[in-house]
Amino acid sequence: MRTAAFAHIPNIYAVARREFVARAFTRTFVVSTLLLAMAAGLIGLVPVVIGYFSRDSAQVAVYVGAADLRTDAVATLDALLNSPTSTGSGDAPETDRKAYAVTSSINLDADREKVLHGGLTALVDVERNSAGDTVFTIYTTEPSSGSGRTAQIIRQAATSIAVSDRLARAGITGADQASLFAPPAVTIRSPDLTKPASSPEQTAQEIANIAVVFGLEMFLLLAIVLYGTWVAQSVVEEKSSRMMEIILAAASPFEVLTGKVLGVSAAALLQFVAMLAAALVGLLAEGQVASAVLGDSVGFTLPSGLTASLLVAFTAFFVMGFLLYAVLFAAAGSLVSRQEEVNQIVTPMTLVASVAAMVALYAAIGVVDSNSSWVVVLSWVPFLSPYMMLSRLQAGTASLVEVGGAGLLLLVAIVIAAWVASRIYAAGVLMYGQKFSLRRMLAVVAGR
């Protein structure tokens, strides 16, 4: 039996080698790989590009029409606009450059014209209405709905200024106001009291870990959707030229399908790995480029959530998950005869992969409990396990035994799917030129 199993290898290798060479050694493949790698490398330098074009502080002016305002509107707005939370850094900036330069306005009409022509990012007019309350008008070229980032932050600052003014008019001093607005102590704990309470640093780390898993799952989804379509298109190309019938005369449908999937997948993954490597190089070079262009000594470090166990699990599930879907994409491609029909026939697999990635993301961010029974069950389903197990592993709700068991089940599913797909593959050849019929296809697959 072992001899019979090994007898398939020469034909599988021959088909795989033919498919790989036919794609990887073409000028189109080489040029597209280089362009995609360059684009991926530049994506790693996006923060530097953004920092270069936004290196000058945004200019915000404050016109105080309420002469008896009890608080310093310019200082308050400056503090809120340039706080670490507003700038999105999470830490105090290492340089003296502020994201927003806030100044006092003495001519409302003139500064409004500056906003209109780009001289100012925004102008804030602080007035007092007939009831004695402060009212604010924000002049900006951002959307009039106020959905722009600058307008949203100024709205928060306006609330702080208005409340401070009301308290001052009520006779509450600045020191007392500070104690009133001091944030309360809030502790977030697991119901398992043996686990320590979460600190702000741990919360930030959890968010970073979720981002890591999200990125890995999106890489897998993109590979399945983009390069799975490659596999389907390769089948349709040969079917439309009737080359498939000649190939099947020299090799079995199982050998042809397996070789085609391995060959096209190898070329696709080669391009994908080149893009990932280029993106990683761009990220690692970000600090040096930022230092040379911006003068900032900011470097890129790999997130601590990117552990060795997660990387090993991702690599294994990435390869096996891609192969499982690639086999199905090849079978689906054999059911149609024109390239225009490929996108329609692969839509079901694309939807399954997308839904699996979405559910896994919900489990990672806590929208659904990653330890609930239905999530645990789904994480064992071969079509879903490449995504679900990564989320459960990151959340700490999946043991290495579960991950290994799901991986073994996925490997078995690949073999079964390859056998079933080879029958569909052969049936697709026999149905060449005929309108697709599920009943006819099942009859051919069953050998009737």
Tell me what the structure shows:
By secondary structure, the chain is mainly alpha-helical. The protein folds into two domains: 285 residues, no CATH class; 126 residues, D-Maltodextrin-Binding Protein, domain 2 (3-Layer(aba) Sandwich). It contains 20 helices and four strands. Strands 2-1-3-4 form a four-stranded mixed sheet, sandwiched between helices. A hairpin with a 5-residue loop joins strand 3 and strand 4. Helix 3 packs parallel to helix 12. About 2% of the residues have low confidence.
Which helices and strands occur, and which strands form pairs?
Layout: H1 2-7, H2 9-24, H3 27-43, H4 46-53, E1 58-64, H5 73-81, H6 84-87, E2 100-104, H7 108-116, E3 122-128, E4 134-140, H8 149-169, H9 174-180, H10 200-240, H11 243-250, H12 253-284, H13 286-293, H14 308-333, H15 342-345, H16 347-365, H17 373-378, H18 385-395, H19 400-430, H20 438-445
Parallel strand pairs: 1-2, 1-3
Antiparallel strand pairs: 3-4
